[in-house]
Every structure is written in C-alpha cells, then in structure tokens.
Amino acid sequence: MRSSRLKKGNLCFLAGLLAATAGIGTSVTIAHVVRREERARIRLRFEHVSADRIKSLESSLQSSISYAEAVRAFFMSSNHVERGEFHSFVQNILDSQSYIVAVQWVPAVAATERSRFEAGVRREGHPGFVITDSNATSASAARDGYYPVLYYEPSNESRAVLGLDYGSIPACREAMQAAQRLGRAQAARVQPLRNVQGLEDSTDVQIFIPVYAHGDAGRTRADSIRVCSGFISALFRTREMTEHALASPELAGVDMSFFEETGDGEKQLIRTRWSRARPEAEWNAPGLQSVDLDALERQGFAVSRRIDVAGLRWWVTTTPAPEFFSMNDERVWRLVLLGGIALSVVMGYILMVTLRLLLNREERARLHLAAVVESSADAIYTKSLGGNITSWNQAAERLLGYSALEIIGKPVLLIQPSVGLQESSKLVEPRDNETRTRQYETVRIAKDGRSIDVSLSVSPIRNERGYMIEAAVIARDITEQKHVERLKDDFIHLASHQLRTPLSALRLYSDMLLEGYAGDLNVEQHDYLGIIATSTQRMVDLVGTLLNISRIDSQALMVRPVPTYFSELLLDVVNEMGAEVEGKRIQLEVDMGSGLPMVPLDPVIVHEILINLLTNAVKYTPEGGAIHVELALVGDRFVTSITDTGCGISQEDHDRVFSRFYRGENIRNEHEGSGMGLYLVKSLCELSGCQISFESEPGHGTTFRFSVPQAGMKEKSGRSQLESISRKERFEYV
Asked: Are 256 and 133 found together in one domain?
C-alpha cells in the first residue's frame, strides 16, 4: 500500500512538472507572438498617424483654395465690386487663416485698353499708377494683354504690388493660362518678391482662379478666354500653412519631409520638419540626408503619399523619429513572458496537489463503492466480454450458493439454464453504442440445482475511452412475486371460463323473457328483467376482457393484418356509437384526409382499440358536449386523434392511466367501470407495434392519439384471436 502511494505521489509530481514546463513553453511562444503583434501595432499606429498628418496637410491646402473660391464667388455675384467691399470680405479670411499671406484681384486688361485702365485707376485715388513688370523698375513692356494687381489685401502692403503685371512673371503667366484653359484653380511656385514686405525668407505658392463675366465660362476654350474678366489670386506661405496643419501633439515622434515633383518626374526636396519632440525642431533644407529611407520602407516605417493641389504635385514622406519607439515602448511581451512563467509554476504546483487530492478521493470512493456493493441486498456481479464472471458480492453468494472463490473466473453459463444459451450470447455480446440499462426477467440455477426466478438489470461498463469492457448485473429474487402472479392469472383464467357459461345462459334467458317467450310482462317486471340483462352483459363483457388480457399476457394472441382502408374502419366505429351520441346530444365531428392509402391492419384489434377510446369519450363527455375525431397521415404514421370536452384527467393520475384496474378519483363515484379498458388498449398497441398517448387537463377534456405505422402491423402467430366485446358496456380510462 505504501509503495502504491509513493508511486502515485511521484506520478503527481511528474504531471505538475510537465504542466509547468508546457506552460513555460507556451508563455515563450505567446510572448514571441505578442512581441511581433506589438511591432505590427506600432507600425500600424505610425501609418495612422502619418495618414492623419498627410490628410490634414492636404485638407489645409484644399481649404486655402476654397477661401479663394469664396472670393471668386463674391466677385461673380456682382457686376462691380468696390475696393472697400473687397477689403471687408477678404479681411475676415486673412484674420482667420494666418498662413494666407495675401488675396488679390487681378483683372484682365487688353493692350488697347491699357491707357484708359491706368487713367481710371489714377482717378480713383492712386496717382502715378502704372502697370509694371516684376522688377518694378519700369512700366510693363508692350504685350497683347496685361494682368495687373488692382485690389490687394492686406491693404497696408498694396502700394508695393499695386499695378504689378503677373503676365510678366513666367510661372504666374503659365498658371493663369492653365486656369483659363481648365476653368479651375492653378498654382505657381514663385520666388520671394522684392517689393512685398515680409516674404523674403519664404518660398510661397500662389493660386490663380479665373473669374468669368456673368458667371459662365462658355463652351469652348476661345469662349473661356474671351469672357475671362480676371483672376482671384491667393498667396500663402508653405511653412505657416504646414505648421497650422501639423499643430496636433500627435506629430510628436514623426518627421515629415516635403518634395515637389518637377516636370521631368524627379522629386525635389523642399522642406523637412523634424519631430516636435526634438529641441532643434525646425525647418531645414538638408532633409533626409541622415535617414536610411530604403531600410525604413522595407520595415514598413516610411510612408510616402502624393498630394495634388491646383496643378502642383507634392510628395510627403513621414519617418519615425527615435523617440517614436520610446513613446510606444514594447513592454507587454516582457510582462506576458514573466507572468506566464510565474503562472505556469503556480499552476503546475496546483495541478500536482489537485491530482493527489483526486487520487485520494478516488481511492476512498472506490473503497466506499466496494463496501456498498458487498453489503447490498441484491446479488451483484460483473462479467467480461468473454462471458467469465469477474466479481461476486455476498448477496450473490446467498442467492445462488457459490462463494466468490468458487465462481470468479468461471463462465456465466454455470448459473444459467441450458435453454438460456441464446440469452447469454445477447448479454455477453458487446454493444459499444448502447448506453441504457437493459432489464428483463429470467431464471438462474443455484449451486444445489434449484431454478430461481430473477429480475436482471444489465449495464455496460466502459473504460476512459468509452469502449465497453465488462457488463454489470444486478439480480433480484422474484420467485415469490412470480408465484403470486401465476396464482392470480390462474384464478382469472379459471374464473373467466367458469363464469362465462352461466352468465351467457342468464343473459339468453333474460332476453327471451323480455321478448315475451314466457308470456307478457307488466312494466315493473320488464324493468327488473332489463336491469338483470344489462348487469349480466356487463359481466359477460368483463369476462371477455379478462380472457383477452389473459391471452395477451400468455402471448397466445395472434395478429393477422390484411390490407384495409383505415378511414372505412374508423367510420364503422363512429356509426356504431351513433345511438349513444344522439342520446346525449353530443356534437360529433369527423375529419379524415382524402386519398389515404390502404394499410395492413388487424381489423379486430384496431376496432377494439377505437371502440374503447370512442366509448370513453362519449361516456365522460357531458350532455350537449362535443367530440372531434381526426385521421391523418403524419410523417410515416397514421394518427387517429379523439378529443372530448369531458372532465379530463388530473396530473397526478397521468402515470397510472394505463394501469390494470385503475380508475381516477374524480370519476370513481360518478361512472361505473372496471378500469380495464385502457389497460387492454395499451396491451393491444404493444402487441401490434402501434402507439397510444394522451393529453389532458382537468375540466378541459382529453385527447387520445392512436398511431399505426404506414407500413402496417406485423403478423404474429398465436393460439387464439382477439374476442370482440359488445359495445353496450365499454371500459373507461379513469
């Protein structure tokens, strides 16, 4: 015993050690996966931050155009815009958007109209006004047309650029021509203007949006040039605009570089903005000279996007600064690894302790079960699949006379009669798919040769994988019970045969007297004889029922199915009950499906079942009530439902409805009966392979359902046929 316990303790320790080792290995694997996921999460976060920043930059560029579009719409909504109106409208835009440096109205002036245009501006309060070239040193050279600045905001800088001809600046002239041709905003990158105060330290972008007379650009290019009355021009600083777009703290840890795509498809670095987390976060020209952009792109930590704004193509590249990784520290995988190791050790220890407790509990349970089996009053033994007895309790020794030493290892055939060989093969044969306990009555042979009637319960014993390895048998001595049952059956059989002849004679002579064979009877004599005849018929029917039950119990009753229309058989039964139904003024409804096929039935058995069920329904339905009879093919069965509006069956009586001689408390004193009708119905259904069921609620009536397989009843041989009972006295269910 001590050696066994030591072995179990070592096994528990080994199981705990293996569990801890497996847990540590799993933790390492999970930590590796978590670390990889953390890298992916950081990379995804970087992509999201980069996309947000680039989207903000693009939105800021587009919003600058939208403000210029608003000024154009203001011009196109009026035939003439005064300088003061322009000042008021544009000043609000400049106050709210600091990166927009200036907004200008640039009219288109034909060469033939130049002198008159300059004179008109001078009359408006600008003496000495003249259209000048970009160098602002002399009047503009002669050309086909001019695009001078007429309105300029902020107004305190207007003198420096008033009259400046953008047509003399190649980049601006190309942008205006493209805007005229396309009908939308076009941008030009311009060098710092000498004559515009405050722009010397910045490279700026200038947008030109065409303004059309009457708001219509025309259908052709010639029409758009002809009706173009000028341009709204907006000038903004790249640095201030991008700083506005990237003012969010989310920029921390991310460097952004801006490139402009040149005409030959090359990218020219314009500016680089280092992360705000750096003390030297400034704009500088060198840009990505110290960054291995190719390596970052291979790791997924470099994002490049193109932004198209008013004809300019900008490229924005974002790269993570060193502090980006420190702000997104990879700590979770370390915690997972350490926590997993600690948890694995603890769980291994808990498993070891738990296994020891379970083994001890299992050992105690096994000893307890062995004591219960050994002290049981019923004989309990087990046998192997080969048919040899493997265990034997004291009750089995008392019942059959063999000691455990004598019987264990011997074949089970030793305690079975020779006629039970077939039974033995059924018990020993393994049934892996069987889960229920089989119960039946049989005979066992004691050591002294006595035959003992026993009730057996046989259950499969399975191993941990679910395979049957043995069978457990519980044997209970029912010798005395079988003796009492035989005496009772013999008495019923004898009494039935002995009573049948005198009762039949009594009924015959009662009928003869009632029909006047012995002379006329007065009313009182006729009533008395009627009572005698009715009571005699009840006894005859009872005797017939007892004989039928005796035939069923002795397995002497035969089943002879013949092709039958179920609907016709049901109608015959309903017609038989016509007088009783009319006498109680019951509303009887019959519902049968059309085109039902023939089915092999024993007409006598089915007739007896239906007449009993329908008689019960009529008996317990009050006067003026209703009965519904329905026949239908449901799935693969013919189902007959008989529903009444009678007193119903109480819930506590449901389990005893089909018991022999049982009658319910709610009708025992109100209706006469023997309590044999439904027992006979149940027995006939089991004999013929049919089914009977019911639903009931006290005070709401009862529904009985009798079903027959669509394939019909199976033929069964026997010594006698069912005796049909008169319908004048049927047997009730409760």
From this structure: no
pLDDT at 252: 61
Helices (runs of H) and strands (runs of E) counted in the chain: 19, 24
Distance CA 673, CA 734 (A): 9
At residue 473, φ and ψ (nearest 5 deg) are -125, 130
Would you say residue 340 lies in a domain? no
pLDDT per residue as tens digits for the range 138-173: 666 777 789 998 888 887 766 678 888 888 888 888
The boundaries of the domain holding residue 502 are 483-551
Of 432, 447, 476, at which residue does a domain stop?
A: 476
Looking at the domain assignment, is residue 461 inside a domain?
yes
Please say whether the beta carbons of 640 and 630 come within 8 A.
Answer: yes
CATH number of the CATH domain containing 448: 3.30.450.20
317 domain residue, yes or no: yes
Does residue 395 share a domain with residue 429? yes
Q: Is the residue at 46 inside a domain?
A: no
Q: CATH number of the domain that 215 lies in? A: 3.30.450.350
123, β-bridge pairs: none
Query: What is the per-residue pLDDT across 303-356, written as a single tens digit (0 to 9) for each?
Result: 888 888 777 777 888 887 766 766 665 666 677 777 777 877 777 777 777 777
Nearest to 596 by CA among 566, 620, 558: 566
Q: Does pTM top 0.85 for this prediction?
A: no
Alpha helices in 228-331 (DSSP H): 238-245, 293-298, 322-327
Residue among 99, 114, 363, 458 nearest 247 (CA): 99
Asked if residue 564 and residue 662 are part of one domain, the reply reads yes
Give me the half-sphere count of Cα atoms (radius 13 Å) on the Cβ side of residue 94: 16
Greatest Cα-to-Cα distance within the chain, rounded to the nearest angstrom = 162
The verdict on 698 and 561 lying in the same domain is yes
How many domains, the chain?
Answer: 5
Closest CA to 260 of 294, 329, 220, 309: 309
DSSP 188: E
* Residue-wise DSSP of 593-634: -TTPPPEEE-HHHHHHHHHHHHHHHHHHSPTT-EEEEEEEEE
Question: Which residues does 527 contact at the CB level (< 8 Å), separation at least 6?
Answer: none
- At 719, the amino acid letter reads R
What angle, 0 to 180 degrees and rounded to 10, lies between the N-to-C axes of helices 332-375 and 2-76?
140
How far lies 250's CA from each of 200, 254, 255, 331, 340, in Å? 31, 8, 11, 21, 34
Of the three residues 452, 476, 500, the one that is the final residue of a domain is 476
* Reported confidence tier of residue 241, pLDDT bands at 50, 70, 90: low
Please state, in angstroms and rounded to a whole number, the distance separating the CA atoms of residues 404 and 389: 10
Query: Cis peptide before 154, with omega less than 30 degrees from 0?
Result: yes
Alpha carbon distance 115, 136 (integer Å): 18
pLDDT digits (tens, 9 = 90+) for 597-621: 889 998 888 888 888 888 888 888 8
**At a CB cut-off of 8 Å and minimum separation 6, what does 688 contact?**
559, 602, 605, 713, 714, 716
Burial of 361 (0-12, 13-18, 19+ CB in 10 A): exposed
